[in-house]
Amino acid sequence: MRTRASLLLSAVAFTQILLLGGSLGILVVELRKVRADLIRFGQEEQAFQNQLAVAESDLYRTSILLRDEVILEGIDYDRAKQELNDLLHRISDQAIHRPSWISAQMRAQLDTIDTTRAEYLTRARVVASWQENDRKRLGLQYLRQQLTPMRLKFTSTARQINDLTQALRDTRNHAMAQSIDGIQALVVRTLIGAAVFGLGLAGVAGYRFRGYERDRDAHTRQVEQAEDQLRSLSQRLVEAQELERKNLSRELHDEVGQTLTALRVQIGQIEPASEAAIDHLAQASALADRSLRSIREMARGLRPAMLDDLGLGPALTWLGRDFSKNTALEVDVEIEGELIGLSEPIRTCSYRIVQEALTNCVRHAAATSARVLLHESPAELVLTVQDNGTGFASGRCSGIGLLGMRERVEELKGEFAVVSSPGAGTLVRAILPKAKRENS
User: What is the mean pLDDT of the chain?
Assistant: First the structure.
């Protein structure tokens, strides 16, 4: 169910991203179109205006040179005539280019301009080809009656075209502004839609995540309750195990041990009737002694009586001597403090930690020496076991023995740590508060 809900939210979010991306893509395309139209219109308008300006300038310059040719004499006349011929030779009779956006009225006026300009240039070439007599006889009158009205007509029409071009530019600018306003409105609508959609998605996601959090909290509480129950069960099992060990040790020591001792005494009081009987009595006596020692060792292994009778210090000292005697591990036990008034759980926990740590030194660490330090302060008991064994990599301290030690310490609200590295030995430290701490 959660997987389907997560996939649905992901699909909705992805759809929102696609819609927003598509809208922004459309906006970018539209803006590029507007920009391209503005650039194209500006370039065509500038080229068109340049053509009109050049045509008007050429006609104006031609009229000036025609006037100079008519009224000047001598060298000035020759100069004006040469310049006029060059100008008329350079001027093109081609029609002015019509942009695609001009109106029908402007096309008609451009036709008038092209016709007027072509006729003006034709008559100007006629004047430029006159002889001296024709120039003096007809020149000024011809200029006033024929050429000047045509030039003024051309100029007037060109100005009208400029006015129309300006009006068209204003209209186009207004249309572009409206297009931009429409794009801005589309952007606003898109952003508002995305915001509303995002808020709705956030609300749905928040509701779903809140449900997940409630489920997680409930599951966490269940897990914590299960852990507490398991920890309580584990503690009760440990306590039951210690009690059973204590009872079994006492039974072995008091009942079986005393029975074997009485048996040994009875065997010693038997009078042998023959040499063979003497041998049998000696073997039976040795067997009874060996059984008695085994029973005592078993009783001490289960739970040494001195832990309850003499206290923690003597029990740890005896444990160290026992390991040094029966294994290749040299154990040095140091005790700092009186160790008076320790509760039975603290004594049992400390003894079992040292017992398990020394057992690990022999079985797994291949250590040759170990140091047990027990330091007592007014508030806590600090227990340290350090060996010179092979050690292990950090993060791999997950054995049953280490977990059991950790659970014993944590049940007493203490602190437990294992520090080790390959080839550098292992250090086990437990800090046990004398007064049981409250849960933090």
Answer: 75
Tokens at residue 426, please? 């292992």
> Please, what's the largest Cα pairwise distance for the chain?
190
pLDDT band, very low/low/confident/very high, at 82 (cuts 50, 70, 90): confident
The answer to whether the CB of 318 falls within 8 A of the CB of 304 is yes
Q: Return the structure tokens found at 367.
A: 């250590």
Please choose, from the candidates 324, 403, 400, the residue with its C-alpha nearest in 3D space to the C-alpha of residue 358. Answer: 324
Distance CA 177, CA 372 (A): 90
Q: Which amino acid is located at 226 in the chain?
A: A
Is residue 379 within 8 A of residue 433, CB to CB? The reply is yes
- The domains of the chain, with CATH numbers, are 2-207 (1.20.120.1730), 306-433 (3.30.565.10)
Rounded Cα gap, residues 242 and 196, in angstroms: 67
Coil/strand/helix, residue 5:
helix
State whether residue 311 is helix, strand or coil. Answer: coil
Task: Find, among 301, 320, 303, the residue nearest to 358 by Cα.
Answer: 320
pLDDT tens sequence across 120-165: 777 777 777 776 666 666 666 666 666 677 667 667 766 766 776 6
DSSP secondary structure letters along 223-281:
HHHHHHHHHHHHHHHHHHHHHHHHHHHHHIIIIIHHHHHHHHHHHHHPPPSSHHHHHHH
CA–CA separation, 59 and 88 (whole Å): 10
pLDDT for the residue 404? 81
Does the pLDDT value for residue 97 go beyond 70?
yes
